[in-house]
Amino acid sequence: MLNAGPGDWFDKRICAAPDFSVTLDPLLGKVTMSSQTDIHTLMTELGRKARAAAHVLALVPGPAKDAALRAAAAAIRAHAGAIRDANAKDMAAGEAKGLTKALLDRLMLNDARIESMAAGLEVIAELPDPVGRVLAEWDRPNGLKIQRVAVPLGVIGIIYESRPNVTADAAGLCLKSGNAAILRGGSESFHSSQAIMAALLQGIRTAGLPEDAVQMIPVTDRAAVGEMLTMTEYIDVIVPRGGKSLVARVNAESRIPLFQHLEGICHTYVDGAADPAMARKLVLNAKMRRIGVCGATETLLVDRKAEAQLPLLVRDLLDAGCEVRGDDAAQAVDGRVVPATDEDWRTEYLDAIISVKLVDGVQAAIDHINAHGSHHTEAIVTEDAAAAETFLNGCDSAIVCWNASTQFADGGEFGMGAEIGISTGRMHARGPVGVEQLCTFKYKVLGSGQTRPG
User: Fold this and answer.
1) Within 13 Å of residue 139, how many CA atoms lie on the same side as its CB?
2) For residue 109, what is the DSSP state?
3) CA spacing 20 to 30 A to 83: which of 178, 185, 314, 359?
4) Does domain 266-414 have CATH number 3.40.640.10?
């Protein structure tokens, strides 16, 4: 093992060579070398440690978990400069690689975003402990008392791409819910995630929790992901957060249950009874506030009865620097609108691009969304309560909004602290996956000597 002094760990933490990756644990001063031909051994060791930590963490009382989260938040603030430096390396590499503006925005960490990570951990610490909640209880005629009680899932594997803040969010949520975590960040955010991870480990150790409660895969070799997806002995659920190709691969290869997070093909529908000023404000925010988030609106649907609003809606977007791809009605509004293709209606742009279509009423909007969307987040703008109710009930999506921006599709905005992702599946959890969704349950049967008659 090699050692490094306390002042130079952020600079020396990560090195690379063609045949192996080198990771320096900044707080222990250890270097771990992993041969690419020995990924199985590396991943098995991570899994073994995570499983052992999960058994301990499941019994840790709430105040100890909260202390770890607050200590981690303090460490992130203390090392904000080092985290920025690490992020600068990732940003420079991303620019050289030709990442899109949207992906670079996802990757970038400034002071505000670093503070948001720290504050997010503190918000999670303030949440009620989800473990041990009695979800339901009842008495049987024979005197047995039955309780359904929340317990941790166990070990959660999180695979994510360019957003380094997921490192803090995922670790914080797993700790709060009593789960051990194995994190696999994207190669684009490797330096940033490692720097954040170092602060998290400092918080965990400060609070006396098992340091293996949160581990990060120390290599960028994609073979590690393949190995991770087969670790049924050690990992209880996989959470993929990333683009279409990542999710497709995880779906195809995983032997472990998944929290599905598919594309965010989100829609905003402007109804015939929409307030024009509100519609303009909401549409512009839903698309352009942050174009690279999964809750960004990708398709704007406008009721034919609101066609008079279409010119201003389209021009607002164009003037904000958004490319508009539209049907015949949208093209007639402004010469800058380009024709939409069939593919546009099922595309998550994650960029300053939007598709626009005129539809014949709320049911036509619902039909379009259910046919072309990804069951993520949809919004209706209307003053007609009946139309809103029809839309909210009819859209087969995890999140539906009335007179609110689709960009509120976020666990923090829901008051859940942070989220580990937006689940677009139907099993166990749907929508923002927070601390409660990271629990399962067991039944406690309390008796007084009852035996079951033959």
Assistant:
1) 4
2) -
3) 178
4) no
Work out the pLDDT band at 428, boundaries 50, 70, 90: confident
How do 237-241 and 266-270 pair as beta strands? unpaired
pLDDT over threshold 70, residue 34: no
Residues 314, 356 contacting (CB under 8 angstroms)? yes
Instruction: Please give the torsion angle defined by the CA atoms of residues 433, 179, 51 and 428, in that order, rounded to the nearest 10 degrees.
Output: -40
Let me know: does 206 contact 68? Beta carbons within 8 Å: yes
- Rounded CA gap, 90 and 88, in Å? 5
- Report strand pairing: 431-432 vs 180-184: unpaired
Paired sense of beta strands 377-381 and 297-303, if any: unpaired
Whether 143 contacts 450, CB under 8 Å: yes
Q: CA 415, 421, 426, 431: dihedral to nearest 10 degrees? A: 30
The pTM of this model reads: 0.78
Q: Name residue 49's amino acid.
A: K
Ordered strands of the 20-25 beta sheet: 14-16, 20-25, 30-35
- All CATH 3.40.309.10 domain ranges of the chain, comma separated, are 266-414
Single-letter residue type at 289: R
* Least confident among 97-101, 143-147, 176-180: 97-101
Q: Which fold has domain 39-253?
A: Aldehyde Dehydrogenase; Chain A, domain 1 (3.40.605)
Nearest partner of 362 among 336, 388, 334, 399, judged by Cα: 388
DSSP string, 373-439: S-SSEEEEE-S-HHHHHHHHHH--SSEEEESS-GGG-STTTTTSS--S-EE-SSSS--EE--TGGGE
Greater model confidence, 256 or 418: 256
Cα angle for residues 32, 35, 39 (degrees, 5° grid): 95
- Gap between the Cα atoms of 7 and 325, Å rounded: 52
What are the start and end residues of each CATH 3.40.605.10 domain in the chain?
A: 39-253
Residue in this structure with the two tokens 């009593």, named with its chain if needed:
178
- Three-state SS at 217: coil
Strands 431-432, 422-423: parallel, antiparallel or unpaired by DSSP? antiparallel
| Separation CA 272–CA 274 (nearest Å) | 6
Give the DSSP H/E element, type plus range, for residue 358.
Answer: strand 353-359
Q: Which amino acid is at 100?
A: T
Distance (Å, rounded) from C-alpha 338 to C-alpha 324?
A: 6
